[in-house]
Amino acid sequence: MSTPTGITPPDENRPYTASEPESTTPWGPIVIGGVAILVVLGIILYLSTRGRGSQASSDPDPYAANLTITDETLSTAQNFAGQEVTYIEGKVKNNGQSTVDGATIQIAFKNALGEIVQRESQPLAIIRTRDPYIDTASLKVVPLKPAQAREFRLTFEHISADWDHQKPDLRITRVSTQ
């Protein structure tokens, strides 16, 4: 029997049981949040491996095997702003049959455990003159002919504090020839 208000009074012969509330879990925001977290993690992973992966896994140019690096030395000096600058100097020789007019060298600095703490690539800069100061130029300006050897210099304004101050690994990765 119903009352004028439309509410049915409880059956006195049946005990009152509360109905189970419907699930009110907000699935939409949970799914959106999960997707957002996955996107952020993907971006972080991509950015953290982008520089190392492309440089470390790239195969060197085939002609790079014809270029040998010898007599590497390390030195430091202060620049005009009073900051310490590190130099790597050495000799590069073209043992191939083509004239080299460009080369990129990859430098890997390691810590005391032998782990790479900094990896950089620079164009190979050839020393043109030493007096009254050291002047360098690219291989486009002073190409390296077959059987020719020249001195080079690499300049670093910042190297990781974890570097063990030993000679870094040098590897020629890209070469252009005439």
What would you say this structure looks like, in words?
The chain contains one helix and eight strands. It has 178 residues and is an alpha+beta fold. The protein has two domains: 27-57; 62-177, Immunoglobulin-like (Sandwich).
Question: Which features characterize this protein?
Answer:
2 domains, 38% strand, three-stranded antiparallel beta sheet, Immunoglobulin-like
Main sheet makeup: 3 strands, antiparallel
Structural class: alpha+beta
Query: How many domains?
Result: 2
Shape: elongated
Let me know the number of strands.
8
User: Would you tell me which CATH topology of the largest domain applies?
Assistant: Immunoglobulin-like
Q: At the first level of CATH, what is the class of the largest domain?
A: Mainly Beta
| Strand order across the largest sheet | 1-2-7
Brief overview, please?
The protein is of the alpha+beta class and 178 residues long.
